[in-house]
């Protein structure tokens, strides 16, 4: 059997690892648009503050792929898919025909077509190359002030990394308050209080980014509505991600927000599966690391003949930075109706706990400051 895995993220790697663990008799090929081996994407934001050892960054060393006979097509993305013949055309013109294909194409950073977006010093925040380039830019240009566009979980991780590097950071967010999916109103106030204690960090919510101004071809400020501007020598986009579905759509697969699959992770075309940030299961695109791994595993198991289904479950959001910790899962935000809330709060200590119950069943957990009860509560919620 010939199996091609398109994408070197969590889903693609987990699929390969499942094949290897199951000792499948197959020719395995990994196709990636990145020039490096699969890595732990959540570790990227750490790289803004400090070097990350290879052993903590890469999922497996190169010997793993060599010893298990995995053919690597790195920095050579698939640009066309013939679904009927299960044939992929790569950027360099090479064609790969497979009996089974797993599309684990991931997602791309959302950006805006704004005036001045071509200036140097403006980076997406998705791939290793983005972070390497941003870190080098900070070092080579002596960056002292930065702006992160997007005040969600990812944007705050970027901000924390830059703050740790000694850079003054402004977080810019269109929504009027912080992380509405993860925090309720009181939790948001406590979290913002922790942010305000960080001397080289500012948060601007309810602001509209309209463009960028530069000096000498490099970004110098972010323009906001009503004529305001925030000085910034470095800008990082952190506005979420859009699933990479172009390859599948052009190949005739059913798509919506993501590549539509069944719970077995098979797409609308038999023999072609999708997993990870590009996949849509039961109307949900997870966009998170652990669900991507699980989907990759389920796709591989079904290819191996072990009927398995992926079940959409709440995925936890975790954050550590600004002198606090956050754990949030399920119906934890402040925009949930028809539920009961159990709240305990100590703003002076920066500690907050809110549990959401629907008909007596735990459906949401929000912990701030003290997250020691997270695993126990999560077990109850998912059980």
Radius of gyration: 22 Å
From the spread of the alpha carbons, the general shape counts as globular
Number of discrete helical segments: 9
CATH topology of the largest domain: FAD/NAD(P)-binding domain
Structural class: alpha/beta
Number of beta-strand segments: 25
Helical proportion, percent range: 10-25%
Summed over residues and divided by their number, the pLDDT gives a mean of 94
What's the architecture of the largest domain, going by CATH? 3-Layer(bba) Sandwich
Strand content: 25-35%
- CATH class type of the largest domain: Alpha Beta
Largest sheet: 5 strands, parallel
Strand order of the biggest β-sheet:
3-2-1-7-19
| Distance, first to last CA | 38 Å
Give me the CATH superfamily of the largest domain. FAD/NAD(P)-binding domain
Weakly predicted, low-confidence segments? none
Assembly state (oligomeric): single chain
Structurally, how many domains make up the residues? 3
